[in-house]
Request: fold
Amino acid sequence: MPGAELVVVAIPTCRRPRTLRRCLEALAEIDHAGPLRVIVAENDMVGCEGLAVCEAMVAAGYRFSLQVVLAEERGVACARNALVRAAIADPEVSHIAMIDDDEWPRPDWLGHLLAVQRQEGADVVGGPVERSYEVPPAPNVLKAAEGAYGALRTGRVDLVDATSNILFRAAVFRRRPDPWFDPAYTLLGGEDRDFLMGLALAGGVFAWSREAVVREDYPASRCSLGWMVRRAYRGGNTDMLINLKHRPPSFTLLREGSKIGGALGVSLLNMTLLAWKPERRVAGLLLLARVGGKLAGLAGLRYQEYRTIHGG
Reply:
């Protein structure tokens, strides 16, 4: 299609061949008439299961151009950098969409992201991730743990803070130095929020598409309250590390100390006086874990969540 925008869909993968195949199969069904390439970053140099999945799909006649790049250093930051490097090597690439290897998009996913990007003139457009639980948690746990992204409306937002469902203008990466995603977060997670916060502080324009939905696989190992507590702790830990690195205008140690004190009060209230409501009790526990992660970050401690890989 002469003159059409060339979109790359970029997927980091590590030891999840089953869900990667499902993601690629869903991508093959998206409604997109323009030129599109799919790039997968293999981040397991031992088994290379993702590479094998891609080679089999290419041999079977995959709908789109499907390229695999090897991210030899372990960690999601390194895989994302390898994806961006490969994508912008082609000067015709105008947009880079990212999705994780344990997710799968609806057929209209990419169309909604592109439409909002054009409408808002955005550098970045995010969309919601709906969870698919292998073992559904108890209702009180689910209510407390689910994010608030469903409440966001389509249009401009201050920040999109994750790359699990996102569209970038390729120019965002071309005007910033490699590595884009800080390798210091390689096994911590949060490398995406770190990059996106830096982009926001540099004047980047962000938008949200409520309709650009992807589904995320939650295997049994991620469906327990224990895992959700550890995730909340990690979220607090990396958020503090990122704030200490970037020092956004809204962040000062005095203000953060006040927030931590307030959060401790709310969490204790939920776990004592309001403990008769199961969802409030769980919410208090998750908030307490997040505060603990922030305090650990202030002390210079780093929680390496991504040493463990869930699903497959």
About this structure: DSSP finds ten helices and eleven strands in the chain. The chain has a mean pLDDT of 92.
